[in-house]
Design a protein that fits this description.
alpha/beta; six-stranded parallel sheet; elongated; disordered N terminus
Length: 272
């Protein structure tokens, strides 16, 4: 038995991703659920000759921990319902200086409230104020909050003031966003993220910020997609779909885990 996440693109690519567990295990667990994966849950067992077991979205809790968490949530509490975007690119994806500037200007142009988690690669000693455009912090005032390093992602996504998630589309971030019904502004960086971003759009609960032919972000496009997902009438369907997935997850409860327990029990019985 093995557990992993594998975004599906085509049969050949999927086969390469699964070549190792193909030999070493009888079933593969995926941190996902049938309503999101759709036909691939039924397609993959035939392709790789293994049983595929969705575990349901495994998402961390929302316990507040420390003064920093409380400060962020108190700031969120001053904003209107669904009025704020959470901007975070995970712990392993870092915007370049040019990308940071485009993101900053995009957030400013959008007119939407935001919490932006700014991180730098290990070893880089940069002051947050110096990493952002000149006078950016002064211009945004109380409309934005910049947090360096880490923030309680699940708590922020669960907050009623949060109306969108500007995300690199790491798989765990997608599942957290879905659990709390928050639509995604997809800004993929590398690894499986570009494929995950396509899934976000295809499933209807987000929209991707497209890069130009030189793989660069554009501030106008960033602002446009944020406004579409969070406030414009054009994004009503996107917001509705995110809430629909959240309701599916809520109703499913531990259904996927219960099914997994039965499968494991059967596997143990067979082993005896």
């Amino acid at each position: 038995m093995c557990s992993q996440r594998f975004p599906v693109t085509d049969g050949a690519d999927t086969r390469r991703r699964l070549e190792s567990p193909r030999i070493s295990c009888k079933m593969i667990l995926i941190n996902s659920f049938r309503e999101l994966e759709g036909k691939y849950i039924d397609y993959l067992p035939t392709l790789i000759e293994k049983k595929i077991i969705p575990t349901g979205p495994l998402v961390q809790g929302t316990t507040v921990d420390g003064d920093k968490d409380s400060e962020i949530l108190q700031w969120l509490g001053t904003k209107d319902e669904f009025s704020t975007v959470f901007v975070s690119f995970g712990s392993e994806s870092f915007l370049s200086k040019e990308e940071r500037e485009e993101m900053a200007h995009g957030l400013e142009l959008s007119g939407v409230n935001f919490i932006w988690i700014v991180r730098f690669p290990a070893g880089e000693r940069i002051e947050v104020g110096e990493a952002l455009p000149v006078e950016f912090l002064e211009r945004i005032g109380e409309r934005g909050m910049i947090v360096e390093g880490w923030a309680p992602q699940a708590q922020i996504l669960a907050h009623p003031s949060t109306g969108g998630f500007v995300s690199h589309c790491g798989w765990n971030s997608i599942l957290e966003s879905l659990k709390f019904g928050v639509p995604i502004v997809a800004v993929p960086m590398h690894h499986d993220q570009p494929v995950n971003a396509k899934l976000v759009e295809a499933a209807g609960f987000g929209a991707e910020v497209k890069r130009d032919e030189n793989n660069r972000l554009d501030r106008e496009n960033i602002a446009q997609v944020i406004k579409k997902v969070v406030v414009d009438d054009e994004g009503v369907g996107v917001r509705s779909k995110a809430r629909e997935f959240s309701e599916i997850i809520r109703k499913k409860g531990d259904e996927e885990i219960d099914g997994l327990v039965k499968e494991l029990a059967q596997l143990c019985t067979e082993g005896k």
